[in-house]
Amino acid sequence: MSAPSALITGGTSGIGKATAELLHSRGYRVMVTGVSGVADAGLPEDVAVVRADARSLPDLDQVVDQARRRFGSLDLLFLNAGISRPGPIESTDEEAFDALFDTNVKGNFFTLQKVLPLLGEGASVVVTVGAGEGLGAAMTAAKGALLPLVRSLALELAPRRIRVNAVSPGIIDTPAYGKLGVTREMIDSWGEQVPLGRVGAPADIAGAVAFLASDTASYITGQNLTVSGGIGVHTNG
């Protein structure tokens, strides 16, 4: 019996890279995609790294062809590619709006559509949803579109015994914050507000993805696993 196989979009840094490393350590055959950091991702030698833009359908066709040739079929599709364009409605232009939906919604939708023939019975799809609230209306709309999509796909693909779930990270210490101008001091101060007392690490999300992909989660579909250190948990009374 061959080792399980996984395709991870947005897998050259942060959460995607940590997930690739974890799955590889557990015996998975892994392929990752990314638009940057492809040449120096620093992943194990036998992890395939493919440059691909989630917004480009020809790029997606190339990824699927390579996955088919390398693995034959896939046991896990981790849809992790995404971008951030935070800002209030007054400063959100058409380019930023389109970029958010093209990558975070269209990209995920068509990646799954094209990969679907490679997903057999018992396969798992996991989608990174992430936070949109507090980052502007366009970010909230783009991220908010994903959870209904996950639930709908879970029902549509259930007859094929393909499970579809989401993982929603809280504040995770990834290189993405640096690109947005967030300082280390700011991240550390955010950690003080987290009930568990720290910001999350990419490995925290990787563990959740590995769980959702495992046989242990074989009766879980259409769900959103929040990994936030307790942010968003409220008590009544």
From TrEMBL:
InterPro entries named among the record's database cross-references: NAD(P)-bd_dom_sf (IPR036291), SDR_fam (IPR002347)
Gene3D superfamilies, alphabetized: NAD(P)-binding Rossmann-like Domain
Pfam (any one): adh_short_C2
GO molecular function: oxidoreductase activity
Keyword terms: Oxidoreductase
Similarity comment: Belongs to the short-chain dehydrogenases/reductases (SDR) family.
PANTHER family reported in the protein's UniProt record: DEHYDROGENASES, SHORT CHAIN (PTHR24321), ESTRADIOL 17-BETA-DEHYDROGENASE 8-RELATED (PTHR24321:SF8)
Name of the protein in question: NAD(P)-dependent dehydrogenase (Short-subunit alcohol dehydrogenase family)
